[in-house]
Design a protein that fits this description.
Blueprint (H helix, E strand, L loop, with lengths): L9 E7 L6 H9 L6 E7 L6 H6 L6 E5 L6 H11 L4 E4 L5 E2 L3 H11 L3 E11 L19 H7 L12 E3 H4 L12 H10 L3 E13 L5 H4 L2 H20 L5 H8 L12 H19 L4 H21 L5 H8 L6 H18 L1
Helix pairs in contact: 5-12, 9-10, 11-12, 12-13, 12-14, 13-14
Length: 348
C-alpha cells in the first residue's frame, strides 16, 4: 500500500448527472463518516440542472470536484474516476445513494484483515425519492456472501450492489468498465473480476439505495438491457463451460430478469429443462463445486417461479414443488408464498 497500512487512504468515487434533488444527501453521508482519511472525487457528467452548483458549494478540502465538458456517459465517467483515484482502497457511491454511518470504517477494517479479497459489498436498504424505506420481497438482503457463491450466481444475475462496494486497488490491476455495456457496465466488470479474485458480500446493510424513475437501469429500454445481458451470459458460458447457448436458451436464461417482457406459459417448463442442462454442463466441466452449484440452481429456480407468480401465473407454486432439484421442508413455505403471490396478482 502506498499510504499508512493501518490508516489507508480511501478514494470515494461519485459520478453525478442531473442529481440536484439527491446529491447533497449523498455528499453529506460521506463527509459524516467516522473514518476521516479519504479523498472524495466527484465528477459532474455534463449536468443541465444545479448538480454542479451544489458540488461547488462544498469547501471540505478532501473533496475534489471535476467535470466533463459534455455528457460522456456513466461507464466513461466511472473509468475517469478510477484513473483519478490515489487511495489504497476505492469506495463507490452513486450520487443518489446514501452511505450509512460507520460504513467506511467497517469496510476498511474488513479489507485490512482480508488482504486477499478484491472487494467487499453489502446488503442495502431500498429507499424512494422521498427517503422512505421500501420493503420488497427479498428486502435486498444478500443471499450470496462468499466468493464461490457470488461467482456462481453471477452466471444468472448481478448480486453485487455497486454503491455498497469498497475495492482493494492493489488487486484491481487496472481493470476498467467496458464502455459497451451501460447500464450493465458494473455487472460485466464483476463477472470478469470474479473469475480471478475473491468478491465478498456482508449481510449488514452499508448503504441506502435509492429507487426512482430516473435510475439509469430504469430509463434504459428492457429490450436493450436484455441484449446486453445476453452478451454477458454468452461470455460467462464460454468461459466456464466452453459452451455457446442457442438463441432460445439465452432467452430462457435471461428473461426472468425483465419484468415487462412477455414470458408465456411454457416458460417455467423451459426453465426447468435449461437449468438441468446447466447442471450437466457443470458436472462435465467442474467449473463450480457441484453441491454449491446445485443450491445456486435451486435459488435461481425459485426466483424464476417468483417472476411468473408476479405475473399472476397460478401454477408457479406447483411448478416449483414438482421441479425443485432438492426438496426440503422450507420449500413448503415457499410453495405457499408463490401460490399466494400468484392468486393476488391474478385477481388484483
Amino acid at each position: 500500500m502506498t499510504n499508512n497500512i493501518q490508516n489507508p487512504l480511501v478514494s470515494v468515487l461519485m459520478p453525478a448527472f442531473n442529481r440536484d434533488q439527491y446529491i447533497a444527501a449523498s455528499i453529506n453521508s460521506v463527509l459524516e463518516q467516522s473514518y476521516t482519511n479519504f479523498e472524495f472525487i466527484i465528477i459532474d457528467d455534463g449536468s443541465t440542472d444545479k448538480t454542479l452548483e451544489i458540488i461547488q458549494q462544498y469547501t471540505d478540502p478532501r473533496i475534489r470536484g471535476l467535470s466533463n465538458e459534455k455528457n460522456m456517459g456513466i461507464a466513461f465517467t466511472r473509468n475517469k474516476l478510477m484513473q483519478a483515484a490515489k487511495g489504497d482502497f476505492i469506495m463507490l457511491l452513486d450520487s443518489d445513494d446514501i452511505a450509512l454511518p460507520g460504513r467506511m470504517q467497517t469496510q476498511v477494517d474488513y479489507l485490512l484483515k482480508h488482504s486477499d479479497v478484491l472487494l467487499v459489498g453489502s446488503s442495502v436498504i431500498n429507499i424512494d425519492d422521498q427517503n422512505k424505506e421500501l420493503h420488497q420481497k427479498n428486502e435486498n438482503i444478500v443471499k450470496e456472501k462468499e466468493p464461490e457463491e457470488i461467482k456462481a450466481m453471477l452466471l444468472f444475475r448481478n448480486c453485487l450492489c455497486q454503491s455498497s462496494l469498497m475495492i482493494n486497488k492493489a488487486l484491481l490491476h487496472g481493470e476498467t468498465y467496458d464502455l459497451n455495456y451501460p447500464p450493465y457496465e458494473d455487472y460485466e466488470l464483476w463477472c470478469r473480476l470474479s473469475r480471478k479474485h475473491k468478491l465478498i458480500n456482508e449481510t449488514k446493510p452499508q448503504v441506502k439505495y435509492r429507487m426512482h424513475a430516473t435510475n439509469v437501469s430504469t430509463t434504459t429500454k428492457e429490450a436493450i438491457k436484455m441484449d446486453l445481458f445476453n452478451k454477458i451470459s454468452q461470455q460467462q458460458f464460454l468461459y466456464y463451460f466452453n459452451y455457446l447457448p442457442t438463441t432460445k436458451e439465452l432467452y430462457t436464461h435471461c428473461l426472468w430478469n425483465f419484468a415487462s417482457l412477455h414470458s408465456g406459459y411454457t416458460y417455467l417448463a423451459d426453465s426447468g429443462k435449461w437449468l438441468k442442462k446447466i447442471k450437466l454442463l457443470n458436472v462435465e466441466k467442474r467449473a463450480f463445486e457441484v453441491g454449491l452449484f446445485a443450491q445456486t440452481l435451486k435459488n435461481n429456480w425459485y426466483e424464476r417461479c417468483w417472476y411468473l407468480a408476479e405475473k399472476g401465473y397460478l401454477f408457479a407454486g406447483v411448478y416449483f414443488i414438482i421441479l425443485t432439484p432438492v426438496f426440503s421442508l422450507c420449500d413448503v413455505n415457499n410453495f405457499f408464498r408463490l401460490t399466494l403471490k400468484s392468486i393476488i396478482n391474478k385477481f388484483k
